Amino acid sequence: QVQLVESGGGLVQPGGSLRLSCAASGGSFTIMYWSWYRQAPGDEREFVAGMSRSGSTNYVDSVKGRFTISSDNARNTVYLQMNSLRPEDTAVYYCRMGSLSDNYWGQGTQVTVSS
Description:
Oligomer: single chain
Structural class: mainly beta
Number of strands: 11
Strand content: over 45%
Helix content: under 10%
């Protein structure tokens, strides 16, 4: 079955940067949509960034100008470049991929922004 494996999370100081990666493998699929969500303790899971097959991107207002979603189709991988990180960005980040037939979630990776 299709699996999404995330990496790149960790501890970073305020103002720092991280790049998250999410690679899809297994089975056969056509990627239609990539997105990133995050969930802080006690909060609802929040949409962060998305990219459609057409190339359109969208972001939650709180990350606009700081985060960038991109993809490498040859590697079936989506990235989230996070700059100017703030403590309120602290959360578990999840990637999601929508194929022609189904949707898949990554396992989540912890991002902690703290001094």
